[in-house]
Amino acid sequence: MKRIKRLFLAIVIPSLMFSCQKQLDLPTDGRITLDQVFSDYNRTRGYLNSCYGYVPAPYMDRASFSDEAEDADDVTANSKFSNWYAGNVTATTFATNSPDGSPWGKLYQGIRKCNVFLESIQTATVYASDAEKLSWTAQAHTLRALYYLQLIKRYGGVPIIDKPFDVNHNFSQDKRASFSDVVTFILNDCDQALLVPAVSVGFPWEIYDNQFGIMSRAVAYAIKSEAVTYAASPLWSDGKYTWANAATITSEALSQCLAHDYSLFNEVPAANIAQNGYALYFFTTSNDSRTRDKETIYQAGTQMAVWSAAGLPTNPGMVKAGPCPTQDLIDSYEMANGEAPITGYSDGDKLVPVINPASGYTESNPYVNRDPRFYASIYYNDAIRYLDQPAGKHVQTYVGGVEGISSFNTKYTRTGYYLRKFNNFQSRLNNNGDGAIRLFRLAELYLNFAEAAYQSAGPDAAVTTGSFSMSARDAVNVVRSRAGMPPFPANMAKDAFEEKYRNERRIELAFEEHRFFDVRRWNILAQTDKSVRGMKITQNGSTLTYSRFKFPDRGSSVDKLLRYPIDQSEQDKTSALTGVNWQNTGW
Q1: pLDDT tens-digit readout, 246-280
Q2: Of 27, 68, 138, residue with least CA distance to 324
Q3: What secondary structure, in 3-state letters, does 509-549 show?
Q4: Distance of alpha carbon 418 from alpha carbon 432, whole angstroms
Q5: Around Cβ 184, how many Cβ atoms within 10 Å?
């Protein structure tokens, strides 16, 4: 910074000496120095505001890049979905064929902004109270941690840049840090933010009017929880962060949020509005200063046009069917009694299910008595279309039905199902009722804690941090209770608990981007994403016949897709500067 100031003075002072020479009098171009920015209250706050907005917004389309959905756009030549399924993605073409482009550069722009702010605010002459400066600093630390978390989820270990580059920066010395080292940096950033007192002018828990999207203490705790959960997971673990570490950090995050009025959304809706509280939550606004929605920690994404971009062909104004839920996802929904309907498959293509007799499931009537979250998330054959018209239209996905399956029309389901989650049927009235994905919500903290707790202490042993004490089974059961599902049984073996837990996470967080990253951090991508299935329903009189079918194998389950590739242009530059190939394996 001092070098930049000296350079600025070296240019400005000589120009002042010759101001009498009219031909050298140049008009200002409007640019100001950082000193001028950080000596003015509004400009300082404006610069902090400019540090926001670099998180890739979560979106429902990512489901189509996992085993949750087969996208209706899969038949469009050179669509990102057809290219992804075919495995026709390279480091050069990844940005145009991935769920969120290639956010490497954008995230580092956000980090650079935070670095400039954090360095400049230390010596800023802006007239503001020390408490307000600390508040701003806490926000910048949390934002930087958030950006690094989004980077490592996608790319693995990345360079840690914690200050602005000066004009003499030696780029040849830059290197990628390990995943766990970046997690340490993330945790330290969050801890620095959390040192700031939790007062209104400080780093508060509450979200005040006109502050939607601002960093808060809950966000810092959620970042810590997700970062350490990933660091302990099979793909990323190097021994530095254990599941015991993850349990301790997440138990603190969860207990702190619970102690400060965070709770699962459990409003009971009228029957003509939503099926249950889980359904209502996803099209209820979180921009309410936490007066009604006390579950959302951070939204990040905007309201999605589910009605039109992932709708049914009978929707007025519908454009495409979007991510169509797979039969694989449907099979993972338990019955209302808590039993898995299907315990496996007797064939390699997973078309002949092994039915669990205790579940009550039958292939001739597969959609009755399922987990309530199934009805909140999936449009299936014979589902009530409009809850305020229970005796009216029902969805018809059978062959020949008005929403029937198609293998070529992007307005019709590819799998026999449509997405219902986030989709407010009242969108037909105002086209403004659809929901948004929450980047962090309290249910994830419960599930993160459950995962770390069963891995480190077993399913039933309590993990205690301060006055907080909970077992993995207890944490999962809180989430299931909100959904109206029976608890996990006591004394499950660890392997059985893991299978049921992973399925629970799949259901609770369906279409919220977690599945894409979960199967990667668990290092099971080859098991989950190689192939998916749908359900073809034929009608003969009053008899319906259900036939599973398999889509062609995807080319998107290969190991290289465990991580995003670094932008090829970025890789070319770093390789030339450092002499080291930074590219991720396989790319």
Answers
A1: 999 999 999 999 999 999 999 999 999 999 999 99
A2: 68
A3: CCCCCHHHHHHHHCCCHHHHCCCCEEEEEEEECCEEEEEEE
A4: 19
A5: 18
User: Three-state SS for 476?
Assistant: helix
- CA distances for 298 relative to 99, 138, 147, 431, 442, angstroms: 20, 16, 14, 24, 10
> In a 3-state reduction of DSSP, which class is residue 465?
strand
Read off the tokens for 79: 């669509």
CA distance 170 to 108: 18
Contact 302, 436 (CB under 8 A): yes
| Of the candidates 154, 179, 176, 160, the residue with the CA atom closest to the CA atom of residue 95 | 154
Q: Which residues, including other chains, have CB under 8 Å from residue 227's CB and lie 6 or more apart?
A: 145, 149, 152, 183, 186, 187
Q: Are 160 and 137 in contact (CB under 8 A)?
A: no
Which among 467, 379, 471, 385 has a CA at the least distance from the CA of 426? 385
CB 530 within 8 A of CB 557: yes
At 277, which helix (H) or strand (E)? Answer: helix 277-281
Encoding tokens for residue 40? 């003015």
Query: pLDDT tens across 115-129, in order?
Result: 999 999 999 999 999
- CA-nearest of 417, 268, 396, 251 to 333 is 417
pTM for the whole structure: 0.93
Is residue 208 scored above 90 in pLDDT? Answer: no
Under 8 Å CB-to-CB from 141, ≥6 apart: which residues? 114, 118, 189, 190, 192, 193
